[in-house]
Design brief:
heterodimer; A: 386 residues; mainly alpha; 72% helix; elongated; B: 295 residues; alpha+beta; Immunoglobulin-like; 2 domains; five-stranded antiparallel beta sheet; four-stranded antiparallel beta sheet; 16% strand
C-alpha cells in the first residue's frame, strides 16, 4: 500500500516536472524560431555576415524560444524576470542612444566636412523610410506601426529599435531583426538598383580627392551639428545628442580615455545586451504573425527605395554641378546609414568598372550623413506620430 | 583674421546655448495648477471618511514628479500660509501629468489632505510656494456654484475656466473622446504622401543647415590656407611648391602604419634561451661585487 502511494507520488511529481519542461510547452512556432536563430548563427559564423550583431541576436532567439511554463518569472515579457530587467533598456530606448555615443566616438566625419554637399545625399536616401511608411499605410498598418516599420529604411539598427520602442513596441522584435538582417544583406540588395540607375559614363566619374580637414573643423562639427539639427528636430535629441557628444569626445583629443571607453567596452556591453534581448524578444507566441512577415517584405522594399533615392538624388545634383565637380552616383546608395557596409558596396561596384577609381573615402561622407539623417527622420516621425 | 572669425563662431554657439538654458527651470512647482474645484458636494466624490466634502484638485503639468509638500494653500490672499501641506509624505508626490485632490472640509485632523478651510463662492483659492510669498496659482470661485457641478479648467492646465460637464476628480477634465496624433495625421494624409513631403523637407532642411554651415567653414579654412600659400610664394618667388602625389602620400602612410604596427606591447610568445658568453673579468665577478654583511 505504502509502496504504491510512493510510486504514485513519484509519478505525479515526474509528470508535474514534465509540465515544466520546454518539451511540454513547445509549439511549432518555437521550433521555427529556433531554426531562424540557428540560421542567424550560421550566417554570422560561416558566412561572416555581421557576426557582432547576428550572433547575439541569433543566440537571443534561441534563449527567447525555449518554451516554459508561464508565471515562473523566466520569460522576457514576464515582470520581475532577469531578462525582463535587461529588456528594460530596449523597451525604454536606453540602449540605442548609448550605442550612438560609441558610434560618435568611432566615426571620423572628415569626408563629410571636406565635401559638405555629400550631406544632402544622406538626406535623400531617407526617402526609403517615408516610402515604406506610405506602403505600410496602404497595406493597412496603423500610422504608428507604419512609422516604426518605415524606419527600417534608415538602415540603422539602434534608431529602428529606439523609434519602434516608442511607436509600436509590440513590433519591435520583428523590426529590429528585419533592420539588422537587411543591413547585413546590403551587398545583395543595393547593387542591382545601383547598376539599373546609372550609365557606364556615370560609373566612371572620378571625384576630387577630399581636402585635409583641420582639427578646429572637426571640433566644431559635433557642436554645430547638434545645435543645427536638434533645434529643428528636438525629438531626435537622445540619438543625435549622444552621437555628437561621442564625436566631440573623440575630436577634442583631450578626452581620449572617455572616447576609448565609449567606442570600446561600453558599446560592446550595450551591443551584447541589445542583441541578446532583441533576439529573445522574438518569442514565437508574440513574434510569429502575419504582421512580422509584412514587416520583412516592407523592410526589403524600404532599402530598395532608399538606394533609389540616394542614387537618383546624385544624378539630379550632377545636373547642376560643373564638370570636374560631379559626384559619382555609385556613392548615392551610401546615404543609408549602414556604416560602413553601404560605403563598401560603392567601393566594390566602383572598382568593377574602373580598377583605379576608389570611391570608399567619398562614400563615407553620405554614409555618416545617413546616420544623422536617419536620426533626424526618426525625430520627425516621433513628433508627428507619438 | 581666422581667429576673429572663430571668436564670432564661438559667440554664436554661446548665444545658442543661452537660448537653450533659458527654460531649464521649467519642470518644478511652477508647473502646478489648481485644476478643478467642487464647492457644494452633495452626492459627488466621497472622502476617506465617507463624507461628501468640497474638494480642490491640483494638476502637475510637468513631465516629472513634483512634491507639493511644504507648499501653502489658502482661501485668503492676505494669509498666504493658512494651510501648510505637510512635508516628507509620500502621498503629496504627484506623478508626471497627474493629479491630487485635497478636501476643503476644515478638518485638518483627518489627514494631510484635509485643509483647514471650506470653499465659499467668490473666494480666491491660492497655492503659494514654500517661502509663503511666491504665488504659484490662484482661482476666484465664480458665483453661483451649482451642487455637484465642478468648476475647472476646460483642458488640464489650460487657461480657460468653466463649469465642467462631468466632474473628474483625479482625472482629465477634457472628457471628449480623443484620437491619437498619428490617427489625426492620417485622416488628412491617408496615403502618406503628405508625411513624405513634410518629413523629407524637414530632413533636408536640417542637413542643409549643416551643409551651408560647413561650406562656409570650409571656404574660410581653404581661403586662409590659400592666402598663407600666396604669402609664402611672395616671400620667396623662386621657390616652386610641388604637392606630393597620391602614391607618395600612400607610401608614407603605409610606412607610418607599419612602423606603428610594430610598436606593440605584446611580445612574441616564443621564448628562445641562449647562453650569454662573457669573458671573465674580476670587475664583473659576482663574488667581488657582493658585500659582506657586517658582523
Amino acid at each position: 500500500m505504502e509502496n504504491s502511494s510512493f510510486l504514485n507520488f513519484v509519478i505525479d511529481h515526474l509528470s508535474q516536472f514534465l509540465q515544466y519542461t520546454a518539451f511540454a510547452n513547445m509549439t511549432v512556432g518555437h521550433i521555427v524560431m529556433i531554426l531562424v536563430g540557428l540560421v542567424f548563427i550560421y550566417l554570422a559564423i560561416a558566412k561572416e555576415f555581421e557576426p557582432m550583431l547576428l550572433i547575439p541576436i541569433g543566440f537571443g532567439i534561441l534563449v527567447g524560444n525555449i518554451a516554459f511554463y508561464p508565471g515562473l518569472e523566466i520569460g522576457i515579457y514576464e515582470s520581475g524576470s532577469v531578462l525582463n530587467y535587461l529588456y528594460f533598456g530596449v523597451l525604454h530606448g536606453i540602449y540605442p542612444p548609448l550605442i550612438f555615443l560609441g558610434i560618435g566616438a568611432m566615426t571620423d566625419f572628415s569626408a563629410l566636412i571636406s565635401n559638405p554637399k555629400l550631406i544632402l545625399v544622406g538626406a535623400a536616401a531617407q526617402l526609403g523610410i517615408f516610402g515604406a511608411y506610405a506602403i505600410a499605410l496602404y497595406l493597412g498598418f496603423s500610422p504608428s506601426e507604419a512609422g516604426a516599420i518605415g524606419i527600417i529604411g534608415g538602415a540603422d539598427g539602434p534608431t529602428a529599435i529606439f523609434l519602434s520602442s516608442k511607436l509600436a513596441p509590440e513590433l519591435m522584435g520583428a523590426i529590429a531583426i528585419s533592420a539588422y538582417s537587411y543591413m547585413a544583406l546590403v551587398p545583395v540588395i543595393q547593387p542591382p538598383f545601383m547598376r539599373l540607375l546609372t550609365t557606364n559614363k556615370e560609373r566612371l566619374i572620378r571625384m576630387k580627392p577630399p581636402r585635409t580637414v583641420s582639427k578646429k573643423e572637426k571640433i566644431i562639427f559635433p557642436i554645430a551639428g547638434l545645435l543645427l539639427t536638434c533645434f529643428l528636430v528636438p525629438s531626435g535629441l537622445p540619438l543625435l545628442g549622444m552621437l555628437f557628444f561621442g564625436n566631440l569626445l573623440k575630436e577634442s583629443t583631450l578626452t581620449k580615455r572617455l572616447a576609448d571607453t565609449a567606442k570600446g567596452p561600453m558599446i560592446d556591453v550595450v551591443t551584447i545586451l541589445i542583441g541578446l534581448t532583441v533576439g529573445a524578444s522574438t518569442q514565437a507566441t508574440t513574434f510569429l504573425t502575419v504582421k512580422s512577415l509584412g514587416i520583412f517584405v516592407l523592410g526589403a522594399t524600404s532599402f530598395a527605395i532608399a538606394t533609389i533615392g540616394g542614387v537618383g538624388f546624385v544624378k539630379i545634383l550632377n545636373l547642376f554641378l560643373k564638370e570636374g565637380n560631379k559626384i559619382n552616383p555609385l556613392i548615392g546608395n551610401a546615404g543609408v546609414s549602414a556604416v560602413p557596409h553601404s560605403a563598401r558596396v560603392s567601393q566594390v561596384i566602383g572598382l568593377q568598372y574602373d580598377k583605379t577609381n576608389h570611391l570608399l573615402m567619398h562614400a563615407m561622407g553620405p554614409n555618416v550623413a545617413g546616420v544623422i539623417g536617419s536620426a533626424v527622420a526618426a525625430g520627425v516621425l516621433l513628433s508627428f506620430l507619438y | 583674421m581666422l581667429k576673429n572669425k572663430l571668436t564670432v563662431l564661438n559667440l554664436i554657439v554661446l548665444v545658442f546655448l543661452c537660448i537653450g538654458i533659458r527654460n531649464t527651470n521649467a519642470q518644478s512647482t511652477v508647473d502646478l495648477r489648481l485644476n478643478e474645484i467642487l464647492v457644494h458636494n452633495d452626492s459627488n466624490y466621497v472622502d476617506d471618511f465617507g463624507k461628501h466634502s468640497a474638494w480642490i484638485e491640483i494638476f502637475n503639468s510637468a513631465h516629472n514628479s513634483v512634491n507639493i509638500g511644504g507648499l501653502y494653500l489658502t482661501d485668503d490672499i492676505e494669509n498666504p500660509t493658512k494651510y501648510l501641506i505637510p512635508k516628507g509624505q509620500p502621498t503629496t508626490l504627484i506623478p508626471p501629468r497627474s493629479y491630487i485632490v485635497l478636501w476643503a472640509d476644515n478638518e485638518p485632523d483627518r489627514g494631510i489632505l484635509h485643509v483647514n478651510f471650506i470653499l465659499k463662492e467668490s473666494k480666491t483659492i491660492c497655492l503659494f510656494e514654500s517661502n509663503g510669498r511666491t504665488l504659484l496659482d490662484s482661482v476666484t470661485i465664480k458665483s453661483p456654484q451649482t451642487t455637484d457641478v465642478t468648476y475647472g479648467r476646460l483642458v488640464d492646465g489650460g487657461a480657460q475656466w468653466g463649469y465642467l460637464e462631468k466632474s473628474t476628480p483625479n482625472a482629465n477634465n477634457d472628457t471628449k473622446p480623443k484620437i491619437s496624433e498619428a490617427d489625426k495625421f492620417v485622416i488628412f494624409d491617408p496615403s502618406g504622401i503628405g508625411m513624405t513631403l513634410i518629413a523629407m523637407l524637414v530632413v533636408f532642411t536640417a542637413l542643409a543647415f549643416l551643409y551651408l554651415f560647413f561650406k562656409g567653414i570650409g571656404f574660410v579654412m581653404t581661403k586662409d590656407a590659400r592666402m598663407a600659400s600666396k604669402m609664402k610664394q611672395a616671400a620667396s618667388p623662386g621657390l616652386v611648391q610641388e604637392g606630393l602625389s597620391g602614391e607618395v602620400n600612400a607610401a608614407i602612410v603605409m610606412v607610418l602604419y607599419l612602423y606603428g604596427d610594430q610598436i606593440h606591447d605584446q611580445e612574441d610568445p616564443v621564448i628562445t634561451m641562449t647562453k650569454v658568453s662573457r669573458t671573465y673579468s674580476p670587475w664583473s665577478s659576482k663574488i667581488y661585487g657582493l658585500r659582506k654583511s657586517p658582523r
